[in-house]
Automatic annotation (TrEMBL):
Keywords: ATP-binding, Kinase, Nucleotide-binding, Phosphoprotein, Transferase, Two-component regulatory system. The keyword ATP-binding applies. CDD domains: FHA, HATPase. Gene3D superfamilies: 1.10.287.130, 2.60.200.20, 3.30.450.40, Histidine kinase-like ATPase, C-terminal domain. It holds the Pfam family Yop-YscD_cpl. One of its GO terms (molecular function) is ATP binding. It catalyses: ATP + protein L-histidine = ADP + protein N-phospho-L-histidine. Coiled coil: none annotated. This is histidine kinase. InterPro entries: FHA_dom, GAF, GAF-like_dom_sf, HATPase_C_sf, HATPase_dom, His_kinase_dom, HisK_dim/P_sf, Sig_transdc_His_kin-like_C. The keyword Plastid does not apply. It comes from Singulisphaera acidiphila (strain ATCC BAA-1392 / DSM 18658 / VKM B-2454 / MOB10).
Amino acid sequence: MASLFVIQGADQGKRFELKSKPMAMGRDQSNPIRLHDTEVSRRHAEVRPVDDSYRIIDLGSANGTFVNGQPIDQSPLRSGDRLQLGQTVMLFNEGVGAERDLTARVDVLSRTSPDDRSAILKSIPAGEGSRVLQAPDITGGWLKDRLLNLSVMYRTTQAISHVMEIDALLPQILELVFESISADRGAILLKDDNGLLVPKAVRWRGPAEPDERMTISRTIVDHVLEQGQGVITSDASGDKRFGPAQSIVDYGIREAICVPVQGRHATLGVLYADIRAASGFMPTTFTREGVRSRFSQDHLMLMAAIGHQAGLAIENTLFYNDKIQAERLAAVGQTIATLSHHIKNILQGIRGGSYLIDMGLNEKDDAIVRRGWTIVEKNQGKIYNMVMDMLSFSKDREPALEPNDLNETITDVVELMQSRAKELGVELQWEPGANLDQVLIDADGIHRAVLNILTNAIDASEGVTTPRVVVKTVCDPDSSTARITISDNGIGIDEEDLATIFQVFSSSKGSRGTGLGLPVSQKIIREHGGKIVVTSKVGKGSTFVIDLPMKRGESGGSSEGPVMTG
């Protein structure tokens, strides 16, 4: 599936999957692709499916839309294209399916094939690429000009710094190749787990013919990998090393460059680019042997430099992905261990209640049965709430925003918690505000978010003198914001703990808390485009303030995270 991957800006790291319908981009929360960038217009641009690809259209934005650094009104998109809206930079990727269709067209001829007649015109060692980057002043005129403006190498470094997915990185590297040496076709072949070369990314200048294939010489590829050299290859008709056979001109190739993709510790594969026989836009040069050549030593050195940087980028990306996978597995292990601990405690409670019920039935004592059933019912509620929090936290969802009476939703929560407050001796006050009967919210989501915070407030007030929790709502017409305030005079939160209360499994309740309630509340409020402000003093109590936009497209403030003050 095609996607946009954010490599720079407030939403860095996010991936937006493109669908088979137009998708608008902008600050407005109604956009399928919502960007938290103050320099992006509310409705900035739109990505539309066209045939088998996509096109981006600027929607009259204030700061414009750019594709590969060029301002556009509308433009077709190809894998590796960089889109910039405000301070947000995204990479377009056509998706695995489209890339596989192209990589399937790459043929690497075997050594024994009579069709492999490539000749090496020039070669340089792999280390030359890093030397070029370290000392560009000693290179030739054309290459010196290329390196002194730093655009190609700067963008390569940017790819290393920001792109952490192979599928997005490789098309970007080929884009750099096409910008720097004006090739007709390019490919990146990487070693798989068995050491075999596999085409991973392919690029044509302009649309590829339906049946067009890219043929690469196995002899040349093996030479590059075994000798660690970057080479320029050409028609081999006059090269006796390769014996009588069909010329690569039959494949429509005039010349090609192939360089190693060299990481810090190993050669990861090869970077290949060629010029078709019909191309005539590059200046012709001559080798010492008098052979006409469109690729020069400078082109080869620049390709080696890009191959060196590409190797570092790919190595970093693979390392990053391995690290993410390891962290993901560690997180899964932690999640299982933590949830198992909480479930064990709940089951122990149910088991204890069941024991009392059994004893009461045997002794025909209704009071004991009632006590046991109360314990079972309480623990059933705990496991239900934990499962609901797990479901809410584990999946991204768009809130079903509809005009709702906010006070009615909060009233349901307060009434639900009155019995628990009474059980703990906590006074629960409810002060509804006016003009909140048409607030765009997902009522079920807000119900759960407020329920989690209110439950914590009641628990935190237990045991203090005259425990009290106050729930208020108010409408701020100036900012079109609905505010929910939940205050308690409980034990308060340490300043050190205040910074971690929204982290998963962070709980000050010991075995009573799962550490899921507040993260779920934060997630739901973010999905509404709102924010949570928390203030707390140890021994004085805490106040949670939730601001929600009352209208679609408004913002209740920064939704990047909670604001916490001690």
